[in-house]
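Section 5: illustrative case.
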C-alpha cells in the first residue's frame, strides 16, 4: 500500500465525482430520443441504462472498444425498445455525444473544491469517459485551467482499473505514486485500480452508496469534494 499523507497531488475522476453524470445523461438522452422520434419513457431510459452499463463494464474488461460501445449500445436499445424505428444507430450515437458534451452540470461544491485543491497541490483529471464528451464538458465548465494533466482512457489507450493508468497520471504530475491520492466514486475502477498501482485512494460515496462486500476498502471515504478540500490541510504537503 502506498504511503499515507502528506500528498502532493490528486488524480480525480470526472463523472459523479466532479460532474453530475446522471443529470447530463438524462437530458442528453431525452433530446436524442426526441429527435429520433421516440418518447423518452421511464422504460426506455431504464433499458438504456442497463445496456449502457453492460457495455461500459465490457469496455473496462477490454472485450469491446470504445468505438463499439458508442454505437452498439444504441443499436441494441433501438432493437429492443423501438424495433420499428428506422434511425441509424451511428447517427443517434453522434447526436447523443454532441448533446452530452453540452451538458455541464457540476456536483455541489465541486468548482470551489477544485479551485481550493489546485492552490495546494497538483491536480490531474482521470476518466474512462469518451474524449469528445469529457473535453467538451471540461472546457465549458471553466475548470480546465486547474488541472495540470488530463488522462482520458480513449486518448491514452489505457482503461481504469489498469494500474498503468494511475501510474501514468503520477508520472504526468511529475510526482512519485506515493505522493498522489486517487479520488473517485467507483470501487471497481477508481479504488481497485489505485490499489493495484500501489497508490492511496479516496472513495466519493454518494448518498445511499454501499461499499461492495469483500472488496478491500479505500484509505479515505468522503461524501463530496468539499469534504476533500476540508481534509486537505491535514493530508497535503504544499512544498511542491
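Designed sequence:
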Amino acid at each position: 500500500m502506498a504511503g499515507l499523507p502528506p500528498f502532493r497531488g490528486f488524480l480525480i475522476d470526472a463523472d459523479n465525482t466532479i460532474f453530475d453524470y446522471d443529470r447530463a445523461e438524462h437530458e442528453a438522452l431525452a433530446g436524442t430520443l426526441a429527435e429520433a422520434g421516440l418518447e423518452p419513457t421511464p422504460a426506455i431510459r431504464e433499458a438504456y441504462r442497463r445496456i449502457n452499463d453492460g457495455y461500459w463494464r465490457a469496455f473496462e474488461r477490454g472485450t469491446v472498444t470504445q468505438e463499439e460501445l458508442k454505437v452498439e449500445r444504441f443499436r441494441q436499445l433501438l432493437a429492443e425498445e423501438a424495433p420499428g424505428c428506422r434511425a441509424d444507430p451511428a447517427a443517434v450515437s453522434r447526436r447523443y455525444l454532441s448533446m452530452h458534451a453540452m451538458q455541464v452540470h457540476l456536483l455541489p461544491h465541486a468548482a470551489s473544491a477544485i479551485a481550493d485543491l489546485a492552490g495546494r497541490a497538483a491536480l490531474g483529471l482521470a476518466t474512462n469517459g469518451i474524449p469528445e464528451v469529457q473535453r467538451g464538458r471540461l472546457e465549458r465548465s471553466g475548470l480546465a485551467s486547474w488541472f495540470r494533466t488530463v488522462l482520458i482512457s480513449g486518448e491514452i489507450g489505457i482503461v481504469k482499473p489498469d494500474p498503468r493508468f494511475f501510474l501514468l497520471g503520477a508520472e504526468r504530475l511529475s510526482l512519485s505514486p506515493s505522493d498522489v491520492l486517487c479520488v473517485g466514486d467507483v470501487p471497481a475502477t477508481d479504488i481497485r485500480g489505485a490499489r493495484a498501482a500501489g497508490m492511496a485512494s479516496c472513495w466519493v460515496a454518494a448518498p445511499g452508496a454501499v461499499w461492495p462486500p469483500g472488496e478491500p476498502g479505500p484509505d479515505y471515504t468522503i461524501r463530496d469534494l468539499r469534504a476533500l478540500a476540508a481534509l486537505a490541510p491535514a493530508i497535503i504537503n504544499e512544498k511542491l
